[in-house]
Amino acid sequence: MIRSLTRLSLLAATASVLVPFYAILAASLQPQDNLSPGLAWPSDPQWHNYVDAWSTGGFADLMRSSLIIALGVVPLALVLATLAGYGLAMMRLAVRGPIFALLMLGLALPYESIVIPLYYDLKSIGLLNTYWAVILPLIGAFMPFGVFWMRSHFESLPPELTEAAEMDGASSRQILREVLLPTARPALTTLGLLYFMWAWNQFLLALILIQDPAMRTAPSGLGKFIQAYGRNIPLLSAGTIIVIVPVVILYLFFQRHFVKGILSGAIK
């Protein structure tokens, strides 16, 4: 009975993801004058909708901007989260508890509460309307979760690993680089994928902090695209598919590492 309920729950969860994706894909291939595509697969798929959406919405510039922002955020955020997680997990610091508690407060901080102060701060130092205006705030916003993730991973490792290295005379840097990091590959891969997805899907910060439409992220550009072509459902669906495809491809490529990292954290 329990096994059957588990299978039904998994099937329902799968359907809740695949059915909307199928609906968007089917709608993107309908004639552009079809205002209510439904779930039926078109008899004559209009693949040129993707070409029209790509050129009309300027997605080449938008996706390049999303990629620049994501590649600027992910490496720096991973390095900082790893160093902070290692320090809070392994080093004997008197203020380790308060620092970690302060970081965890950041998980409850909504983007909406910091956008206006960020706008004026970045304007005062000349970073407004640049990629750094989004990259730097995102790194800071991602730190609480990243530090929590890496701290949990390092704390779950057997203490004998670091104790043996310390007895051999290894420094803190050598312990991190040669002992702990090799074990952290699944955790780092999972965290990197999450960071990339969150940075790629960034909407609000890019919309407010970058005024140049060509420098905005793909999701924020899609928002403007929807305002301009709100009645053209097939064209909007094609634009949506264009925006989400890179994340789907990246997830499928790193799927095993992602699942391994999630399951490893859950088991530990």
Automatic annotation (TrEMBL):
The chain crosses the membrane at residues 67-88, 100-119, 131-150, 187-210, 233-254. CDD domains: TM_PBP2 (cd06261). PROSITE patterns: ABC_TM1 (PS50928). It is a multi-pass membrane protein. Residues 63-254 form the ABC transmembrane type-1 domain. It comes from the Bacteria. This is Sugar ABC transporter permease. PANTHER family: ABC TRANSPORTER PERMEASE PROTEIN MG189-RELATED, ABC TRANSPORTER PERMEASE PROTEIN MG189-RELATED-RELATED. Its main location: membrane. GO terms for biological process: transmembrane transport. SUPFAM superfamilies: MetI-like. InterPro entries: MetI-like, MetI-like_sf. Belongs to the binding-protein-dependent transport system permease family. GO terms for cellular component: plasma membrane. It is found in: Cell membrane. Gene3D superfamilies: MetI-like. It holds the Pfam family BPD_transp_1. Keywords: Cell membrane, Membrane, Transmembrane, Transmembrane helix, Transport.
